[in-house]
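idk why but the lab printer keeps eating my pages so im just putting this in chat instead. protein + TAP:
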Amino acid sequence: MATTTASGFIHGAFIGNRMVTAASGDTVPVIDPANGEVFTHITECGAAEVDAAVAAGRAALDEGEWGRMPAFERGRLLARLSQAITANAVELAALESRDTGKPARQASADITAAARYFEFYAGAADKMHGETIPYLNGFFVATEREPHGVVAHVIPWNYPAQMFGRNVAPSLAVGNAVVVKPAEDACLSVLRMAGLAAEVGFPAGALAVLPGRGAVTGALLSGHHDIDYIAFTGSPAVGEMIQVAAARRAIGCTLELGGKSPHILFGDADLSLAVPAIVNGIVNNAGQTCSAGSRVLVERAHFDRLVGAIAEAFGRLRAGTPEMDLDLGPVINPGQRQRVERFCDQAERDGIALLAQGSIAGNVPDGGLFVAPRLYGPVDPANVLARDEVFGPVLCVIPFEDEAEALHLANDSEFGLLAGVWTNDGGRALRLARRIKAGQIYINGFAAGGGIELPFGGVKRSGHGREKGLAAMHELSTIKTIIQRHG
Ligand code: TAP
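predcted complex ->
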């Protein structure tokens, strides 16, 4: 998926099952977060490429093989793509590590998850049923599920391969033509998987990938007059723009905008389960996870013991290059590192105690974008560290007196994506789970993002709509009602 031109080695866009470079000749440099150096360039798609991708999708639906393909055959193609991703997993994981800085094991797990998305939706493609509806005498009424049409998927840099699977697999499964705008910082695995889709037989136009900056390619795609739906994952600020772009044309959109997800940790919790899950929930992917568990609400009567156990584990964490394969890699770009450091500097100015700090391996390259994981607390619930999404390996602890205060603090956030409840009191856990305002609640477990089968998404400023599971197929399709008079 790359070509050599006068301006160097460039990763092109994927349109109509071919790799093309932008007519403008514009490119964007891509840095390796582990050493801060530019290692390749991507083409930057402009209006010509966005028009071409959307038109190819429209033609694939209206005139091409894709729009006529039976659901079970779509499923077979998805299954073949899943197998191709698995067969190329080593290469894809290496690309993902280079592009994002992820430790090798985490990148490899992400590729496995991407393949699993296609496997899951391959099996589901021909199992979306309509229903019949009793109506007036002399009428037969049935509903059927239809694709929206040409769907724009704007995805972020934190999990490029997983985001590709999470968005593209259900969207293709229901029969949409899909146009993906990956993030400029990390899109190489996405382009490679699009190439694999062509190799396994997806017809031209079913899938396009348009690299480029968000303010250019992303804005052109989300504002395009001929798209039928937008699925967006990223920051609340850009999410608002996407919602406005969708509203202008009265089309639907899904927004997944991150969170400030709490753990509620009671004194009776099994710490052998809770501590590793809480630590991993903020350290995985260097904390750059929308569903990271970034605040821990701790029962005050047991504060020292509970927080001591988390601090001990936090102090052992180590950051390093993908090849070192330690607990976390670098963050994605210099701006992201500055953002995390700003929060830490502010915490120090606010006099918040640093309870534990992990380390950065001594032999990482000088220009690497590494951040040592930090645990702060106790933090005032009104402090910016307790309220804003850091998007880095920074965890804060907040004490609570009782169940009522824990519930209040959990819900005292503009976000509502995930929550974890840690207690051996089953009644208490379920009471809280039912009253916390969030899209996913874990009890005695926590996996940022959770399984492929599990509907996922937020409430409040975390966004709306559901991804993953069969819910994603409902979100990415619409219902048509057919009413027939038969006399
Ligand atoms: P965004 O800037 O929202 O980027 C997400 C996607 O939207 C990328 O593909 C981006 O392209 C694209 N985009 C940017 N501006 C656009 C526009 N005007 N129109 C259409 N698409 C546009 O999020 P990010 O880069 O992932 O993170 C930015 C900040 O948001 C981070 O500092 C992070 O803390 C926070 N945040 C991120 C997330 C997730 S899940 N990523 C969740 C919550 C908060 P380019 O990347 O190529 O510009």
